[in-house]
Amino acid sequence: MKIRSNINFLCGVIICCVVFIAGCSKNSHRGDGTKTELRITAGVQSGMDGVFVRSSEDGDSFYDDSKIAVFVTGETYDSSVATYSQESGVWTEDKGEPIYLGDDYASVYGEYPTEEKDSTGKTKALYPSVSRKVMPVSITNPQKFDAVNQSDYMYALASVQNRVPYALATVNDENNTASLVFMHGMSELTFSIKTEGQFAGAVYVTRIKLSRSDSDFKWGDGYMSLEADPENRFDSLKTANELVFSGVKELLPVATDINGLVVPSPAEDISINLSLVINGKTCNVYGVLPTGEGSNKFDKWKCGKNYQYAITVKNGELTMNSVEIKQWETIRAGEVDVE
Length: 339
Description:
Layout: H1 2-23, E1 39-44, E2 51-52, E3 56-57, E4 67-74, E5 77-78, E6 82-87, E7 90-95, E8 106-112, E9 115-117, E10 123-125, E11 134-139, E12 143-144, E13 154-160, E14 164-165, E15 169-171, E16 177-184, E17 187-195, E18 203-211, E19 217-225, E20 234-235, E21 238-240, E22 242-251, E23 256-262, E24 271-278, E25 281-288, E26 305-313, E27 318-321, E28 324-325, E29 329-338
Parallel strand pairs: 1-16, 12-22, 17-26, 26-29
Antiparallel strand pairs: 2-3, 4-5, 4-6, 4-8, 6-7, 8-13, 8-15, 9-10, 11-19, 13-14, 13-16, 17-23, 18-22, 18-24, 19-20, 19-21, 24-25, 27-29, 28-29
C-alpha cells in the first residue's frame, strides 16, 4: 500500500507539472491546437525616393526577394531571429524558427538588409543582437560614386495604414500581424555636378573629398541601435576628419548626380575638394559646403534625408549659395560654382 501510495503521489506531481508547464508556455495555441504565428507586412518610410542597397529602387515599398530580419521582446518572450522574404507583396518566414505569440504583448524589432558584401566581394549575413537590440554595420570610407558599395541600413517602427511611423509595433496571439515601416538610419548626399562655359576637351570628376577640422565623420565596423534616438543610433565606429568619394564621371552641361550614404553628423564648416581631369590634366578645386539660410538652415545631416548640393564647374573658384528643403526626404543643400 505504501508503494502504491507513492506511485499515485508521483503521478499526481508529474501531471501537475505538465499542466503548469503547458500553462506557462511561451507559444500560444488556439482552440484547434494550432499555434499563433507572427505575421508581417512591411514598407519603406513614405516620402523617400526608395531603397538603397547598391541600387536605387523607386517608391515606398520593398521589391520582390527582399529580406528582413525580425525578433520580438516581452516579459514572456525569448525570441530568436526570424528572416522574412517578400514575394508578390507577401512576406513569409523563410529562415530560423517561426515566432509564436502568447497572451502577453511583444514589441517587434526589424532590420534591413539581412546580408551584404564585404570588401572582398564575399556575401556575409547580418543578424541583429536580440539582447542588445542592435544590428552590425560597415560604413565605407572611401566610398565609390553612387553608393554602390554601401548598404542602406534601416530599422522598423509601427505604421498607421502602413504609412506613418511612430513607435515600435506590438503584437500578441489575438493581434498577430505587425505592420512595419522601415526607416533609413543614414543620411544621403547627392552632388549634382555640371559644366558651364567652354572647355578644351572632356571634363571628368574622379574624387570628391569632404574635410573638417573635427573628427566628426564616422566609418568602419560598428553597430546601429534598433531603438535609440535617431541621432544616437550608431556606435563603436571609427572617427575621421575626411570623407572620400571616388570613381570616374564625365561632366556635361546637364548635371550628373553622385550619391553617397553617410552616418548622420554635423554639417557645418565642411570643406569640399573636387579632383577633376580636364583634357587629360588633373586639377583640384575647393569650396565650403553651404548649410542653408533662414528657415532652410540646418546644422546636421539627419537620417532619412537627402542633401543635394548643386555644383557648377567653370574656370577657377568655387562658390555655394541657395538652399531649398524638400521632402529619401530631399534637402537642397546649395549650389557650387567652380570658375
